[in-house]
Amino acid sequence: MYYKKRNYKILYLLFILILGIIIVSYLSYKNYIYSPISKENKQIIFRVDRGENRKTVINKMLRNKIIKNQFFANVYAKNKNIGKDLKQGIYILNTSMTPSQILDKVLNGRIDKDPDIVYVTIPEGFTVKEIAERLNKEGLINDIDSFINECQNGNFNYQFLKAIPKDRKSRLEGYLFPDTYEFKKGISSHDIIDKMLSRFNDIYESVIVPQINSQSYSSDEIIIMASIVEEEAKIDSERPIISKVFYNRLNKNMKLESCATVQYALGTHKSTLYYKDLQVESPYNTYKYSGLPKGPICSPGKRSIEAALKPANADYIYFVSKGDGSHYFTNNYNEFLKYKNMLKTTKN
Question: Are 66 and 93 in contact, with CB atoms under 8 Å apart?
Fold first, then answer.
């Protein structure tokens, strides 16, 4: 009986101890999370870089002494389920803010615009000329022709550039990687181009280099194919299929007959291509010349590059737009004609 009472007493004391630890921990957590990080009123510039996540951002805050308790910060972020809307950019914080306010702001992607920074989004499928026009519109370059000239003649030291033929009319077409960039006002055209080439180099080293030895094509030819896929495909799931269609045509010594290459050869995007358009004299016109065009026709995104490296396992040779971004695929010419007629009937 004595031992039983003693055991109960020990369990009771353990319960009180554990409860006390929980209460103290909870109060410490609340006190830390909702108290200013300092009595000072000092501005802090905090930057979130591309590819960072909740864990890396909290680690960076700890290194920069913005937060002092990494465990409590992670607990708060997980309980609030924040970090999914994290955005690359500049965040203006203050030492008078509480850790909860700092975490809410940064992990919810509430960016502060630095007046000296310009954010520019270059979409997949843009040409060098379209990129120059976008940069000019954003006030980053004054002369479109000078930017294009720097693309053609500037000195840039990247391994992948060595594969580009010197006689290509637009040397960096396909290599200015589409992404959202932040540029400081007054930046030179050379430095803008170099930053975009550096971003392409990230993809080159992580996606292309590990697979290029198993390919029948050079890295430059992969980018040419990826650029065609970028322009022809509207749905991500179809990119590897469309890639395979064009590879199948090459393997059968068929002309690629990509309308996107004709649009590039014409130098303009037309809603409807006519027979005379298909006869335009250009090494980029794959209706007129066999094989791949002379060079890329736009800047492909990562998904199109992956599709060019890993095409689908299919024997399709033809595809016809359904008019909604998706396509009919077939290896039968009669079926191809049937799909074309169906589309004409639908339009009429």
Answer: yes
Q: Give per-residue burial for 106-132: e unless 16+ CB within 10 Å, then b.
A: bbebebeebeeebebebebbbbbbebb
Determine the residue type at 311.
P
Nearest to 220 by CA among 167, 270, 156, 163: 163
Q: What is the pLDDT of residues 115-140, one digit of tens each?
A: 788 889 999 999 999 999 999 999 99
Q: What are phi and psi of 94, to 5 degrees?
A: -145, 145
Tens-digit pLDDT profile for residues 69-94? 999 999 999 988 998 888 888 888 99
For residue 30, report the phi and psi dihedrals to the nearest 5 degrees: -60, -45
129 touches 148 (CB < 8 A): yes
**Any residues with CB less than 8 A from the CB of 273 and at least 6 apart, and which?**
259, 262, 263
For residue 243, the tally of other CB atoms under 10 A from its CB is 27
Phi/psi of residue 317, nearest 5 degrees: -120, -25
Start-to-end CA span in the chain (Å): 96
Domain chopping of the chain, boundaries: 43-107, 117-212, 219-347
CATH class of 43-107: alpha beta
159 in Cβ contact with 203 (< 8 Å)? no
2 - beta bridge partners? none
